């Protein structure tokens, strides 16, 4: 039996690299499947969504193999797979999707009806998302491979741009989805809440879609400095000046055309004294304040149904004090939910391959080994302006 190692959630604040079983062609219920492939993982990324689990903010069980951002080489092919072969280099959308149900056929692959017995939507290595084993590992099995996988047309060229292409599994399509659902277009003024990797990917996507100006807001001065270094305007939400006033100082207008929430439920209050106080509805409420009438708000930031670490009883159940009346009065459109990665990843791949988008520089990719993953989690949790990309087999180092 071949060996395998992966990043495992052990307890609140703790992950370890452990020996894990080599993948089999089995679904989480133990049924044999032949529509999958086994990948030798080339890159796999640490995501802010992983951090929610590691911080103890979900019901994730100890022993969960983490990782839903995966790029890999096909090394074994199930008997029912027709369009892939050994040696293909592929990007894995973080959504596990069957391609057969109603929502998949309508391109809503983030809420596939077949891959998770508990609810709509599946993902690798994530709590309540169907039990699919995560890909922060040396090897992983991907089901419904013909449907799910994006094959890179030129393997050598793809490896030259692998630190950009690794972002196709989640953060780049997620940021792009946020920008699209916020209505970003040529000449738009855009505000992005959050200067982490998804926020920066949303800002880059807004520029790709033709935005005139992109403003990124955060309380982390180091992340804001990085955002400025890659060309975004910034606002510092740890300051006492209101968000509207800081936007007005940049635009001459206190409202923007489009807004994108890339923070989610672990948001912090605005103002110097409140910047470390958790206020899970603060981003959504502030975006309704600064988005123009009839504007749109994209919400790729994660919100959960169960949050054991929440600040109050309502928030523990995902109930937040949102000023829906304000959004209603301004005729806002709000778009939520997990990104349907396959709706965008092929076009974004072409943008990378043809040098329209250097996303690795924008999000601050830093390549680390599998054994360095626990340290990467710690640095990322401390707010480092980086996107940690794990290289399990040393392929990038070589």
TrEMBL record:
Pfam families: ADH_N (PF08240), ADH_zinc_N (PF00107)
Positions of the Alcohol dehydrogenase-like N-terminal domain: 35-146
Keyword annotations of the record: Metal-binding, NAD, Oxidoreductase, Zinc
E.C. number(s) listed in UniProt: 1.2.1.46
Protein origin, superkingdom: Bacteria
PANTHER family hit by this protein: GLUTATHIONE-INDEPENDENT FORMALDEHYDE DEHYDROGENASE, ZINC-TYPE ALCOHOL DEHYDROGENASE-LIKE
Name of the protein described by the UniProt record: Formaldehyde dehydrogenase, glutathione-independent
Gene behind this protein: fdhA
């Amino acid at each position: 039996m071949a060996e395998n190692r992966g990043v495992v959630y052990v307890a609140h604040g703790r992950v370890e690299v452990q020996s894990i079983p080599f993948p089999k062609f089995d679904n989480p219920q133990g049924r044999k499947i032949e529509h999958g492939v086994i990948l030798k993982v080339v890159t796999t990324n640490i995501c802010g969504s992983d951090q929610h689990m590691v911080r103890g903010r979900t019901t994730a069980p100890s022993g969960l193999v983490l990782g839903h951002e995966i790029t890999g080489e096909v090394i074994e092919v199930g008997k029912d797979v027709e369009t892939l072969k050994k040696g293909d280099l592929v990007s894995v959308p973080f959504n596990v999707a069957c391609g057969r149900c109603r929502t998949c056929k309508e391109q809503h692959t983030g809420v596939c009806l077949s891959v998770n017995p508990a609810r709509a939507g599946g993902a690798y290595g994530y709590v309540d998302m169907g039990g699919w084993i995560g890909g922060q590992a040396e090897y992983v099995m991907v089901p419904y491979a013909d449907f799910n996988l994006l094959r890179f047309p030129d393997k050598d060229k793809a490896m030259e741009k692998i630190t950009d292409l690794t972002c196709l599994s989640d953060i780049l399509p997620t940021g792009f989805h946020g920008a699209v659902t916020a209505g970003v277009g040529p000449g738009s003024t855009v505000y992005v809440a959050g200067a982490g990797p998804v926020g920066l990917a949303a800002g880059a996507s807004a520029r790709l879609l033709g935005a005139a100006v992109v403003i990124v807001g955060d309380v982390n001065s180091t992340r804001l400095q990085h955002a400025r270094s890659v060309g975004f305007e910034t606002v510092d939400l740890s300051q006492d000046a209101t968000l509207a006033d800081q936007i007005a100082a940049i635009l001459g207008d206190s409202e923007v055309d489009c807004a994108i929430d890339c923070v989610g439920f672990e948001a912090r209050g605005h103002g110097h004294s409140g910047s470390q106080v958790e206020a899970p509805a603060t981003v959504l409420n502030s975006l309704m304040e600064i988005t123009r009438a009839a504007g749109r708000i994209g919400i790729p930031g994660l919100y959960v149904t169960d949050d054991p670490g929440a600040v109050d009883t309502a928030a523990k159940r995902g109930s937040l004090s949102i000023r829906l009346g304000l959004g209603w009065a301004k005729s806002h459109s709000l778009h939520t939910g997990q990104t349907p990665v396959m709706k965008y990843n092929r076009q974004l791949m072409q943008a990378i391959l043809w040098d329209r988008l250097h996303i690795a520089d924008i999000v601050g990719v830093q390549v680390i080994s599998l054994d360095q993953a626990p340290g990467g989690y710690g640095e990322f949790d401390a707010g480092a302006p980086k996107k940690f990309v794990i290289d399990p087999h040393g392929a990038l180092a070589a």
